[in-house]
Amino acid sequence: MASAPANLAADSVRPLEVDALVKSFGAIKAVSGVSLELLGGECLGLLGPNGAGKSTVIRAIVGRVIPDAGRISVFGSAAGSAEARAALGWIPQDLAVYPRLTCKENLLSFGRYHGLSGRKLTESVAWCLDWAALQDRAGELAKNLSGGMKRRLNMAAGIIHRPRVVLMDEPTVGVDPQSRIRIFEMIEALRTAGTAIVYTTHYMEEAERLCDRIAIVDHGRIIALGTNEELVYTAFASRSQVTARFAGSSPEIAAWVERRGGKMVDSAALFTIASSIEIAGLLEDAAKDGLELADVSLRRPNLESVFLHLTGRELRD
Amino acid sequence: MIFAIVRTAMAALRRDLAALALSFVLPLAFFSIFAVIFGGQHDTVPRIKVIVVDQDQSAASHQLVSGLERDGSLAVSTRPASKAKEPRPPEFNAATAEAAVKAGDVSVALVIPQGWGQNPVSFGSADRDPGIELLNDASDSIAPQIVAGLLQKTAITAMPSVMAEKGTQYTEQFIGGFTPEQRKRAEANVAQLRKFANTPATSGSETSPAGPSSAGLIAVHARSVMGQSQNKNIISFYAAAIGVMFLLFTASGSAGALLDEAESGALDRVLSSRVTMTALLAGKLTFNMLLAFAQLIVMFLWAWGVFHLDFFSHIPGFVVMGICTAFAVAAFGILLASICHTRAQLGAVSTLLILIMSSIGGSMFPRYLMPPAMQHAGLFTINAWAIDGFTKVFWRDLPVTALWPQIAVLLSIGTALFFIARRIARRWEFA
After folding, report:
1. A115 at the B interface (CB within 8 A)?
2. Which of B 264-283 lie inside 8 A of A, CB atoms?
3. Structural domains for chain A
4. Which of A177, A201, A290, B94 would you call most buried, defined as having the most Cβ atoms within 10 angstroms of its Cβ?
5. ipTM of the complex
6. A49 burial class (0-12, 13-18, 19+ CB within 10 angstroms)?
7. Where would I find the H helices in B71-159?
8. CATH 3.40.1710 in chain B, residue ranges
9. pLDDT tens series, chain B, 431 aa
């Protein structure tokens, strides 16, 4: 988990404020009353499964979705205004680059769209190529790059104008582990430079590694918000989780798990215990009721556990 | 197994409505268009517009003009059409008639010279002066031949007294003099024929088809007012006609980049920057316009290099027409891209529309050879106005100022299409 920056509450005008955001697409309510604040230099994670409404929130912030209700301000300016556009950098989930242009040509194009020109544009392109480790691929057509390189170019195109707030919408989707690590390093470099970031993901480990605070999003609502530790503590205090697998899978096992206060998740029984000595009692009861245990493990709760605890579903569902 | 593949292909085709439309609607549309152009001609034979200038003002010339006016195949005019509440314009003279042919207002003008009535019948000697001058526009190779033939026919049917009188003179000259009794009878018959010539013709003779020219009763001197090289004129026509059709294809294909960008998400990203939708579309329009203009330059340079088209003495007209045409086709492409939702849809819709526009608008078959209704329908296409403009420049050698109708229409079409495209493109702006 990255450490929280010192200037979290220093700025009087927040880089980003979202208040009671509502957006429906036809009969589907994508976002229902999301409110959040991004502090200066902070990385705020939006963690939730696919379809939770994370991308809609991001698209509303960049002015690509008109909310049905609610208010968004970027450094005090309304979303979609010229000031907000200049302050925001958006890295969409799609590979939104020109496939038939080279890396450098892509960056030059997006730089010009943001009003850069001359030396400033040249310097920004060089900085972005360096940041994305694409200097030696500057003349390569985007369509010929590997998946990881395309992702990095996609990110570089989003920050070509050196924005103060960057919105990253699942930037590691479909990327191999090695490229993912490279992308993490790029994000950490941005954070070191003091850029405020909103990072959406459905990967718990990414949120844990990169984000100062995490908003857990489900069905268009923020159901929990805080640091990793705060979220875990709020949900579990000092309790731990026991995962038990039984031989066979009968309705009796599920009923037994429910009687004991646990949940069946993917054919495994999940129990929350206050202390490790409770494990012995669980095992004894299982044996007494004729259940054959195949495997038992004990672990500290994490964001995945928090999500499961709050929604009754796993994050990947 | 084969049946399974057929079923899969049928299911895919059912869901690709654009391809389905292309497969069934396009052939029907083309069949109908060409059926109207060629098949409908027996019902509505286009009347050939002819200007007649009677410098002679003799009895013979009056009979000839009356005979031509009565012919159902010709639309004869002796003076420009008068506008409401304006005084009647003066009759055409040789110069204004030639200008009208040059401007493409009519295909043929006939000038009956002074003194023609004294010796109207040449009996085969076409070189004998003074003959009737036939001014023609080489763009229409059929009309002058028809008019020349009808002239000979009219000489027989509308000027019987002159023919008889002339025949009597030749008989006296080559065979010997008449007796007083014979002369009296001949003069009585000629008088009867003069009387007959002044009575209206029957409807049957009005609509009777013109027979092949029997060349020689009346001396006719044909002269093309558009220079002597018909081939070069045809080349300039096809450079414009084919050029505009492919410009339309290129413009719609190029504008399709918008759909690619929308699909990849690049459009969203661009619109999240300082670029507005209006600026984006204007940028695409400008690019497509430059591309189209470059295409026209290449097309006409090729015509100059390979087919010896006189390109460099028509540069101002070419530039003006090129820019206006490029603007209109670029806006057309942007509109199609904004209407369609996928590349496949754009491909089908643009092929359908462009081929129909090209066939009606004269890119495949010259409009002046089409029935009047089709010629008017062609005015709803970019092709017709562009081709008319380029024809004025390269064929008729008209100055840039004469292009104002084409310039005004093409710029209006382009502006209107762009504004409609902008309106439709709102769907990309916000969700």
Report:
1. yes
2. 264-266, 268-275
3. 16-233 (3.40.50.300), 240-300 (no CATH)
4. A201
5. 0.82
6. middle
7. 94-102, 143-158
8. 48-224
9. 788 888 877 777 777 776 677 667 777 777 777 777 666 555 555 678 899 998 888 888 888 888 888 888 888 888 887 776 777 788 888 889 888 888 778 888 999 888 888 777 765 555 555 788 888 877 677 788 888 888 888 877 777 777 777 777 777 777 777 777 877 877 777 776 666 555 544 333 333 333 333 345 677 787 777 655 556 667 888 888 988 999 999 898 888 889 999 988 999 999 999 999 999 999 999 999 999 999 999 989 988 888 888 899 999 999 999 999 999 999 999 999 999 988 888 888 898 899 999 999 999 888 877 888 888 999 999 999 999 999 899 888 889 999 999 999 999 999 999 999 999 999 888 77
Determine whether the interchain pair B274/A115 forms a contact, defined as Cβ–Cβ distance below 8 Å. Answer: yes
CB < 8 Å to A114, chain B = 273-274
Distance CA B398, CA A265 (A): 85
The CATH classification of domain B48-224, taken from the options 3.30.300, 3.40.1800, 3.40.1710, 1.10.287: 3.40.1710
- Chain A interface mutation, best of B272, B287, B427, highest count of A Cβ atoms under 10 Å: B272
- Alpha-carbon torsion (B305, B306, B312, B313), positive or negative: positive
Q: Counting Cβ atoms within 10 Å, is residue B78 exposed (0-12), middle (13-18) or buried (19+)? A: middle
Token reading at B167: 């025949």
